[in-house]
From TrEMBL:
Residues 1-18 form the HTH CENPB-type domain. It comes from Trametes coccinea (strain BRFM310) (Pycnoporus coccineus). This is DDE-domain-containing protein. Pfam families: DDE_1. The keyword Transport does not apply. The keyword Nucleotide-binding does not apply.
Length: 247
């Protein structure tokens, strides 16, 4: 009957209806048991060989965030049937801002770096937050070879060095993006006793700690903040409309 599925799920509480997500064929092929085992075997070998404690293990990644929202609304609301159509104010600003995050294996994070689109900026714009983060500019808001090396030299090395607990090397885990393995960055790592450990290609959706455990929460928090700002803007616009009606 039509109710069979509903009753079947009610009898088996461990089951639920799920919706599959799209997966790139390269990721599906690359993420397998042999690749994952080899990755962790190599990681264990490097840490044991150089006596690297977990307090010296870091993971970095970058996340692009649009200043507005383009995706559809997932939340549902109870509305009167006569209230159609229903709209929710969205920001039309889809400029990209990139954040570079770096977290230590014990959960402590370094100061993030934000990359805004543009050519230059005035330092006084960010005086209130300059102590808690770093600010960079690029033409499109993306990272490039120079910016990544600059982050490594002026943000990661000083902070990670200050948090050393011993003379053991520092281990930085990251993905294989081209800007993460430039000659300048490798040279800086050798000079500062830092080992660079690259994740296997096309596996970051499962093996990149920041992707799996941090950036999902960041995306949700960012969307919530965008909604709050848009709601406040919408409220002010309504107030102005009311004032104009009575003038």
């Amino acid at each position: 009957s039509r109710k069979w599925l509903t009753r079947f799920l009610a009898r088996h509480e461990v089951l639920k209806l799920g919706k599959p997500s799209g997966l790139d064929p390269k990721r599906a092929q690359a993420f397998n048991e042999a690749t994952v085992e080899r990755h962790f075997d190599l990681l264990r070998k490097v840490m044991d060989e150089h006596h690297i404690p977990w307090e010296h293990v870091y993971n970095m990644d970058e996340k692009g965030i649009q200043r507005g929202r383009r995706n559809g609304e997932l939340e549902k609301y109870i509305l009167h049937r006569s209230e159609r159509p229903v709209y929710k104010l969205r920001s039309a600003n889809l400029e990209l801002v990139t954040v570079i995050e770096c977290v230590r294996a014990d959960g402590e994070s370094l100061k993030p770096t934000f990359i805004f689109p543009g050519k230059e900026y005035h330092k006084e714009w960010f005086e209130l937050i300059s102590a808690s983060c770093s600010i960079c500019m690029s033409p499109n808001g993306w990272t490039d070879d120079a910016l990544c090396a600059e982050w490594f030299e002026h943000a990661f090395i000083p902070q990670a060095t200050a948090k050393r607990t011993s003379d053991a090397p520092i281990l930085l885990i990251y993905d294989g993006h081209g800007s993460h393995a430039t000659p300048r960055l490798v040279e800086l790592a050798l000079q500062n006793n830092i080992h660079l450990f690259c994740l296997p290609p096309h596996t970051t959706h499962k093996l990149q700690p920041l992707d799996v455990g941090v950036f999902a929460q960041l995306s949700r928090a960012w969307k919530k903040r965008c909604d709050e700002v848009c709601s406040a803007t919408n409220h002010e616009m309504r107030k102005q409309d009311i004032v104009r009606e009575y003038m």
